[in-house]
Amino acid sequence: MAWKWYDSKIIKIEDATFNTKRFWVELPNEENLDFKAGQFVTMDLPIAEKRLKRWRSYSIANAPHEDKLLEFCIVKLDGGAATEYLFNEAEIGTPIKFKGPSGTFTLPEKIEKDLVLICTGTGIAPFRSMLWDILNSEKAHKKIHLIFGTRLQKGVLYEDELKKLEKAMPGFSYSIALSRADELPEDAHYHKGYVHPIYLKDYKEVRPDLDFYICGWSNMIDDAVANLIVELGYDKSQVHYELYG
Ligand SMILES: Cc1cc2nc3c(=O)[nH]c(=O)nc-3n(C[C@H](O)[C@H](O)[C@H](O)COP(=O)(O)OP(=O)(O)OC[C@H]3O[C@@H](n4cnc5c(N)ncnc54)[C@H](O)[C@@H]3O)c2cc1C
Fold it and tell me: Is the pTM above the cut of 0.70?
């Protein structure tokens, strides 16, 4: 398939946490990106001579309804070519050329099962897009449980929005797992440790009316897929994932 390239510009940058920023890019007037919640774009960043070495993919973090504006939630990787560029050189007005939307990490048109969304760090981006899409378009759904993991409380992303979604969206709940925190905040959503014990306990009885969506880096995804399919015995078709690297 021939890829369409878009020329956007950064219009806003905000710190999300100590090592993560939110970037908003805007498309030119005549352009519109028709994407599904959960999809990603691939940016061509000025970080190398060779074309393929310049390409990095980022999930679209906002819901499809917001015309011309795309939000990305990006964590800085020390020594990482793209993130060093985005964090240290990119500014308001910087052009961002990207192709997309791509990917099949999307929810079905009709949501007929309970959903468990498991992520670490910026792996929350596609889920944020899906959740606001469900709310904004009043899409029928069953129970949705988001399990977000990070090391410390200062790394928690979009917590204010999770609180809002929990109030606004019947059936939505969330859990936050902190793997390196000595103490937990006084908040029932918080758990000590990794994301894994949460779903291993809550969903240990295998049910056909439940699907898992997992997003993040390979260490977490490998463990989650093995836990769900090999240890608990869920069918492969019930486990969907988006691997960041
Ligand atoms: C479909 C898709 C969607 C993605 N969406 C996002 C997103 O929304 N937000 C986001 O922050 N990143 C996202 N990524 C990751 C992103 O594409 C880059 O890999 C990341 O920003 C690092 O690029 P870099 O050039 O700074 O580092 P590089 O110089 O390319 O990275 C060096 C190495 O570190 C690994 N690595 C990169 N980041 C991490 C990490 N946090 N933890 C462990 N290992 C890591 C890479 O796999 C690589 O092997 C996505 C990746 C894919 C494939």
Answer: yes
- The structural domains of the chain, with segments of one domain joined by +, span 5-102, 114-243
Ligand 1 center from residue 187 Cα (angstroms): 31
CATH class (in words) of the domain with range 5-102: mainly beta
Q: What is the pLDDT of residues 164-195, one digit of tens each?
A: 999 999 999 999 999 999 999 999 999 999 99
176-185: long-range pairs with CB below 8 Å, 24+? 176/148, 176/149, 176/150, 177/147, 177/148, 177/149, 177/150, 178/149, 178/150, 178/151, 178/152, 178/153, 179/149, 179/150, 179/151, 180/151, 180/152, 181/151, 181/152, 181/153, 185/153
Is pLDDT above 80 for 146? yes
**What is the atom index within ligand 1 of the atom nearest the CA of 81?**
25
> What topology is assigned to 114-243 in CATH?
Rossmann fold (3.40.50)
Nearest CA to ligand 1 atom 11: 74
Q: Is the CB of 80 under 6 A from ligand 1?
A: yes
Query: 245 CA to middle of ligand 1, Å?
Result: 6
For residue range 209-236, what is the model confidence (pLDDT) as tens digits? Answer: 999 999 999 999 999 999 999 999 999 9
Residue nearest to atom 22 of ligand 1 (CA): 80
